[in-house]
Amino acid sequence: MIPPEVLAALKAAVGPQWVKDARAELDTYATDGLPTHRSLPGAAVIPGRKDELLQVIRILHHHRIPAVARGAGTGLSGGALASGDAVLVVLTRLNRILKIDAENRRAVVEPGVVNTRLSAAAEPFGLHYAPDPSSQPACTIGGNVAENAGGPHCLKYGVTTNHILALDVVLPDGELLSLGSPSGEPWGPDLVGLFVGSEGTFGIATEITVKLTPTPTAIRTLLADFTLLRSAGQAVTSIIAAGFVPAALEILDHNTIAAVEASIYRAGYPTDAGAVLLVELDGMDELAVEAEASQVEDLLESAGARSIQLASDPAKREKLWHGRKKAFGAMGRLGSDLVVQDAVVPRSKLPDVLDQIGEIGERYSISLCNVFHAGDGNLHPNIAFDQTDPDLAERVRRASTDIVRLCIEAGGTITGEHGVGTDKMHYMPLVYDADTLGAMNRIRHVFDPLELANPGKVLPVHSCRG
Amino acid sequence: MVADKIRSLLGEHGLLGIDPLGIPVAAPASDDECALLLRTASSESWTVRIEGSGTWIPRDARADLALSTMRLRGIVDLSPPDMVVTVGSGTSWTELQTSLANDRMWIPLDPPGSGRSVGSVVACATAGPLRTGFGAIRDHLLGLTLVTGDGRVVRAGGRVVKNVAGYDITKLAAGSFGAFGIITSVNLRLRAVPRADATLIARGTRDHLLDAARGILSSGYTPGALELFSPAAVAGTEWTLAVRLLGSHEAVAAERSAVGAAARMQFSSLEPSDAADFWRDTLARTTAAPSTLRLGALPSSLDEALDSIAHHLDESCDDWIAANVHAGVVRWSGDAGVNRIRLLRNVAAHSEMPLTIERGPWSVRSELGHFGAFRDGAVRLVYALRNSFDPSRTLAIPLGRES
Ligand SMILES: Cc1cc2nc3c(=O)[nH]c(=O)nc-3n(C[C@H](O)[C@H](O)[C@H](O)COP(=O)(O)OP(=O)(O)OC[C@H]3O[C@@H](n4cnc5c(N)ncnc54)[C@H](O)[C@@H]3O)c2cc1C
């Protein structure tokens, strides 16, 4: 419960209509993109300007009430959920693009700007914002910064952290700080790099300076289908080893293809394939990209591709991508609940790990879909199920843990882009020892000594050595 | 006394000797030995200086003990199919690249200086001209091992190319000059050596070449390197714009003509062996003078940055200067006293340009600190962070203005 005097102060700061505390209104904020986690916040505040946001944080700090930042709420780790004693600070009204500086290939935005809106604003200058999570029509740049989001094209262009030059942040005690400089050179140790990926536990990003990237003028998309998922994985390794840096390398397995083709998102993928592999090559010169595409085509053939489609014009390319982009939506229709994993393995281990994930699915009799960023080794084994079936829910839980352990044993990690949040917190001791977790915990206390910023996320406190 | 203690902790081989300043030099051979030394140092209240090959930052810091990374040497784990290497921080940067080249791989980074250790490149975050096409040091690191000032072993990041589990301590450590601890090993992302590699050169006035470089960028092309060098940097009489194109044969051929057209000037092409000499010699000249500074400016403010350097440090126009036109970074090497550097730093800070002292004699580093012009507020965070890694101030790393 949030004390009435705090609610009153918040209403005075942002206007009464922007403070939600009725149960019905709060229901909207009880989950993020993960349907399996739910928590009702004590209240939700939606400031409309930076100074209002600062006031909100200062009020909450004064009363020692935890604040949880929320962008679009598309996160897949339960990061933007708040408990009843905490206030959700919703940033979607802070959605101004403050500057597009084409000459220096930079933009300055407020945190609530939606990812695709930024790229659209940069388009007239031949530029775009490169990190492209599949949720980009909805998710915010602030949420991307907090999760260090990735996307299909991050294979070539890098993830969010490679594109953030400077940040204004409000610390949990209400102090406003500028980290980084307009050029991206730090004033001291790299605090921008440290803040990106901190999942809202260091404070809230209020203003974000990003790099913009020239939009490639020549693009080729290839779609290859394979009898075996394993062969698709091997094709990925051979393309990278040959020195190509494709813009994207994405795989959909048999179950994902089936889900897509059975849904309203039909893309015309061959339903008898073990896997399809999407390869995108891009650059500034048609002939050069064309030549690369034909070399990659040869590699796909020798890796055992049954058929290869090649597209250069936007409509045809979009069609090849369609099923990939809608894969999560299609899987969402397979069951009422969805577990979305995000483990990463070394690329060369992909074929073996994929086989073993298949075996885990069989062992627990669950239906697994794999759709993933193959070039990065970033897997998304997804399990659609029904949480009201306790036996099934338990099998899903055990299968998930087995998959995570398998990926760690293969030399990988628990999350490549979705973040730890609450969902993967219990896996943290599997990848980091107590001293490393302890160092993270001390860093957190430097930013937030009173544990008021998104408490209870990321670090399993009992596993951190003091 | 300190020397005896080192012998008793690490054995006879752990003590390399006593340096000319009378400081015992210890060379731990593992993370655990590093941790033991630093735990001992912090409980004994010794100060410790970290040293690599000594070719970038001189071994002149005052301390009770020098800790050398010399025995933290060699490739620990190389996985060609995954394109990842784990390497000891005492390994020579050049030797690392040479051995990767056997597998047709490389790290697309060309740090200035010569004979440097991997640890020095990472701790000082000295990216060279290839930063234009491939990013700064931070963009190539997947993880690292840091032995903190109070002797704990922190294993940050991992060996996979995407990883958002927990806080990014790797980024904090890279470019911190060792203020949080000793980097004992690093995990680096590798790439296949590009099939084509061409270097184009044009000479002329500074302003003319700067305009040409901007013309190239505004055409949408981003070369592997696009660097403007002062006459002294190339041991010549004119400013030089050097462009390096990397990729497939077709892509490099296309870029070569696009670059000429966009810059509206003639470039001459260097033969492969001349190109290798050009880059190596130019970058090695960075350390001919005692100090090197790095100034961050918006690409559109590079003229102002270069003018400030000329005005405050390089009146006779004979210093080593390189400007990265895409990243907006100017690097200067020369000989300047504390007061002049301080003045430039203040002037630059007013224009939102951070000035980092990348190398220099102890008299300069200790007086000015590597950073020294923190923004208000951030300075408190930086010292609190350092305090959490090195509570007894064991590591003798001058960051800058104390709060
Ligand atoms: C269909 C679908 C596809 C997806 N595809 C991808 C993908 O390809 N790649 C990928 O990386 N992710 C993907 N995601 C996950 C999600 O979209 C990203 O994590 C995204 O970055 C979250 O942004 P958001 O605005 O929704 O943040 P939210 O979910 O609202 O918040 C996420 C976290 O960020 C914190 N936060 C939000 N704003 C700020 C701020 N301004 N300052 C500090 N902390 C803040 C919150 O406290 C929370 O911890 C997908 C999600 C869905 C539903």
What share of residues of chain B is helical? Answer: 25-40%
Task: List the quaternary state of the chains.
Answer: heterodimer
Mean pLDDT of chain A: 95
Separation of the first and last Cα atoms of chain B: 34 Å
Number of strand segments of chain A:
18
CATH topology of the domain at 97-214 in chain A: Uridine Diphospho-n-acetylenolpyruvylglucosamine Reductase, domain 3
Q: What about the largest sheet of chain B?
A: 8 strands, antiparallel
Overall CATH class of the domain at 97-214 in chain A: Alpha Beta
What kind of sheet is the major sheet of chain A? 7 strands, antiparallel
Strand proportion of chain A, as a percent range, falls in 15-25%
Name the structural class of chain A: alpha+beta
- Indicate the CATH architecture of the domain at 97-214 in chain A: 2-Layer Sandwich
User: Which small molecules are bound?
Assistant: flavin-adenine dinucleotide
Distance between the termini of chain A: 31 Å
Biggest protein-protein contact in the assembly = A-B, 93 and 84 residues
Mean pLDDT across all amino acids of chain B: 95
Please report the total strand number of chain B as a whole number: 19
